[in-house]
Amino acid sequence: MPSGKKAVLLYSCALLAFAPASAQRRPPTTPESVRGHFASINRRLLEMAKDFPDDKYSFQLKPEMRTFGAVIVHVASGNIYAAKAGRGEKVSWDELDPKDYKTKTQVVALMEKSIADADATLKSLPDDSFAKSVEPWLSLTEHSAEHYGLLVAYYRASGLTPPESRQKK
């Protein structure tokens, strides 16, 4: 068989071999999408909380803005709100006072706990509940993503590279 025909045959076999795998891919369901985006943004924010230097936790872009640590506490407030709302508790946004979290260790622990609590609530919801509403999860994810972008600016203004922008080894 001439080499051109061999290449076409080999290419055709490869396409047939990979076709079933690609045909099986489906878009995520609404519950999968909501849970996935929530986990993704919180993973990135927690990584930032752990990575940002202790001595820069009081850094702020402008005097009237929150410090880096206060932004993390604010995001944790949102997670706490969503966990309670997701459990059907009557809730209002109770902003945690960043002054109650004086060290990086305390802020990271708060963020970890708020993520775990909200994630447990989110995972406990039956999939069909997302047909009625994706709130508060959609709003919380958007809120957290906005603060993620803000924290990228804190990194850059501090002369640091955010974890997600670093070259992967």
Description:
By secondary structure, the protein is mainly alpha-helical. The protein has one domain (30-163): Four Helix Bundle (Hemerythrin (Met), subunit A), CATH 1.20.120.450. It has helices spanning 3-23, 30-51, 68-86, 104-124, 137-157. The two termini are 44 Å apart.
Which descriptors would you attach to this protein?
169 residues, globular, single chain, Four Helix Bundle (Hemerythrin (Met), subunit A), mainly alpha
Blueprint (SSEs and pairs):
Blueprint (H helix, E strand, L loop, with lengths): L2 H21 L6 H22 L16 H19 L17 H21 L12 H21 L12
Helix pairs in contact: 2-4, 2-5, 3-4, 3-5
Main beta-sheet annotation = none
> What percent strand?
under 5%
Described by its quaternary structure, the protein is single chain
Strand/helix succession: HHHHH
As for the CATH topology, it is Four Helix Bundle (Hemerythrin (Met), subunit A)
Task: Figure out the total of helices.
Answer: 5
* CATH architectural group: Up-down Bundle
The shape is globular
Q: How far from one another are the termini?
A: 44 Å
Integer average pLDDT: 90
Structural class: mainly alpha
Radius of gyration: 22 Å
- The total domain count is 1
Q: Approximately how much helix is present in the residues?
A: 55-70%
Spans of at least 5 consecutive residues whose pLDDT stays below 50 are 7-16
- Count of DSSP E strands? 0
CATH class: Mainly Alpha
CATH superfamily: dinb family like domain
